[in-house]
Structure formats: structure tokens, C-alpha cells
Amino acid sequence: MKYLIEGGKKLSGTVRISGSKNAVLPILAATIITGKKTVLKNCPDISDVHCTVDILKYLGYDVTIDGSTITVDSSKKSTPEVPRELMCRLRSSIIFLGAFINRFGYAKLFPPGGCELGKRPIDIHLSMLSQMGVDIIEEDCRIVCTTPKLSGGEYRFSFPSVGATENVMIAALKADGPVVLKNPAKEPEIVDLQNFLCTAGAKITGAGTDTITVYPTNSFHDCEYTVSSDRIEAATYMAIASATRSMLTLTNAPCKDLFRMAEAMEQMGVYVMESNSHTLTVIPPKRLKPVSMITTMPHPGFPTDAQALLMATLLKAEGCSMIVENIFENRYNHVEELNKMGANVLVDGNTAKIFGVETLFGAQVYARDLRAGAALVIAALCAEGTTLIHNVHHIERGYEKMIEKLNLIGANAKVINSKEQTDEPYSL
Ligand code: UD1
Predict the structure, then answer these.
(1) Which of ligand 1's atoms lies nearest the C-alpha of 370?
(2) Are residues 249 and 174 in the same domain?
(3) Residue 395 in contact with residue 371, Cβ under 8 Å?
(4) Active site residue 115
């Protein structure tokens, strides 16, 4: 599948932000520890969610999807193993490790898939679980975990890994005493996981701070939980508004989690007006100003997931901006493609210098990962001419109905199935 986007259209109107990909994926995995019925609202219709649902169904659980509501009944007995094909489809399949350890005291899993952002090891996940008493061996390319007992106590993350924090929180609910986690990730998705688990009957405190305390329990109940909205999807539409110099209003947006993106936008001269906790309007200036230096950091720093989006916006700023990527070693997959469109971005190690240009041009480009793909959409929307974006399955992993949402605000974009003729000259 490809996206064909005609640039240069002024956009206007309202975009409704969908549920958060990074919050719903660990929550879906965590539903299996309850052995009860969970109704999750505000779930995004994206391929990563469908892959996770496929894993739950493979495990033998009843899952139904009704619009943005997913119901998981995990009361049946199941197996603590996932085949390689399902495991490799997404990175966050690794969260089934903590869920299996909790539910079965045993797990046998292939390493996960996901975006190619350089090495994405799981050493922190395994080291924390091992310190808590999980025996871990590698067998036939699989990680095999057995848990004679999971010990309560105090444990410290060497780095605040989001996935490792989620895995350990879920597993720790099975420990033989309270588990105190120091230096955990503080991302909003960690708070969402805590809120979900507490709604299902657990007691966990401190998510979003430097110390999380997990009080083990076996006693869960049926529950209904509304997943937070996607802060990175919201950041994407903030970037789209700014780059195309269009006024857009975002509804169902998690305003409190957007402060870093809003700060960066404000440096660029964009006015971000919050009407209430879930509605904001982006009002761009005639010409964007550059930013001196934006550095990606664990939350509450600037999110690495918004780095490519910010860069695509800065392409049209008047002057030179700098971005430093500190979280992933290979997260400039979009640069080569943006430069094909007339951008002027130089990368040296983890630093990118973005020299603003007057005009971007439509081109044939390739989405190399999820956010790199979104950056190409942003550039395409403000380019002269038409852009053909290949490999959009990466984009569809994390963006619900992106082309539909864009056309609703005045873009001229369409999805092309691979078999359709798209040789140049291509047109909408
Ligand atoms: C999650 C998000 C992803 C986001 C990232 C950082 C999901 C599904 N994905 O990914 O969108 O970009 O947080 O905010 O929620 N690391 C290790 N060893 C480990 C674990 C991580 O070295 O055991 C390194 C990673 O290679 C990476 C950094 O730590 O360089 C951050 O990884 P982590 O916070 O774990 O990100 P993910 O949970 O994979």
C-alpha cells in the first residue's frame, strides 16, 4: 500500500484524536492476568492493536471488537507461548512476558519485532525479572522464563525503559510482598497501565514519579476502562497544522501530555490554545521560526516519538534548527527521504541540523518506520506537487484512518493498493 498526497492545500477544521497506541498495547497484554472480563474503550483501529488481538485470540481468549471498544474475556485456560510469526509483528509483544510470568509462572517467547530503530535489546527487562527471582534461559532462539518465586523488595532500573517498566509492573503483582521500583519510566502510558490495573482490582501507586510501589494481588474483577488518547498522534496533527500554516483544532486530545510539543511549537512562533483539558487549537504564524536545540529524553523530556514530526515541521522554518536524539541510536530514518523532497538536513551522529527551505517538492519516498512515515506525510502536505509514499504499512501500525482524517480537513490524499499503477507522472 502507498499514500498519494498532493501538497500545498490549506487545511482547516477539527481532528478527533484516537486512543493511544502505546497505552493500549500493554493494557491488552495485561488483561490476561485478571482472568476476568475487561471492556476497553477508546482503542485505536490500527494494525498493532489487531496484531495484539491476534495474539490474545491465539492464546485462546475471547476477544470482540465493536468500534473503538475491545472486550477481552481471559477467564479460559491458555498457553504461555506465542508463535514466532505473531511475536515478531510488533515490539510490544514483549509485554506478554510479564503477563505470562504473572499468570502461569512460566513463559516461552521469541524476541519481539517492531520498528527498526537500531538495537532494541531487552536486557533491562530480563535483568529486572531475574533479580526478582525469575530463572531465564535461551532455548531454540526463545526466551524461557520459569518462576519458582517472585520476591518482593526494592529494585532499580538502570535506565527508565518504558517496556521494561510495564513488564515488571505486571509481573510484580505476583510477588510474595510489595515491590518498590526505583527509576522507572514516567511516561503517561505507565500511568495508564497503573490506572487500568487498579481499575481491575490491583493496588499500585507512584506511576509517573521516580518510585512505583506494586502491592501483589490475585484478586481481580470484571472492569471497564477508557484508554487515554494518543499524545503522539496529537503531536502529529500539531505538526501538520504548523507545517501547512493551517489552523486546526484537536478534540479528544490529552492536552496535559503535550506540553513538550507545545513548548517546541511556541518556540517556532505557533500559538497553541487550550480550550479545556481535551481540546486545543493550533494557530501558526506566517513564517515558522527555527528552534535552537531540542533534545529527546525520557519523560518528562521531549519525546523521541515526536522527533521526526518536529523535524518535518522545522524544514519550513526560517533558519537553522538543531535536534539531538538521545533515546534510540538509529532514529533518523526519515532524513534521507526528506532530503529527496528538497529538505536540507545534515546528520552527524545523534545530532541533526535542519536548514529551513522555502519550498519542498513532491517525490517518491519510503516510510522506513512509523514516525519516519508520519514525517513524510507532514512534508508531503506542504510540498509543491504530489508525493508518493511507499511502505505505509509502517504508518498504519500507529495511525488510525490517517488519510480519511486528512481529507476531512481539506487535504487531497488517497490510499493506493500496491497493484495500482503509480509510475510517474502520478496524480490524484
Ligand atoms: C516505547 C514505545 C516507543 C517509544 C519508546 C521510548 C511502546 C509500544 N513503544 O518503546 O514508541 O519510542 O518507548 O519512549 O510503548 N533499552 C535497552 N534495553 C532494554 C530496553 C530498552 O537498552 O532492555 C533501550 C532501547 O534500545 C532504547 C531505549 O532503551 O534505546 C528506550 O527503550 P524503551 O524505553 O524500552 O522503549 P520501548 O518500550 O521499546
Answers:
(1) 11
(2) no
(3) no
(4) yes
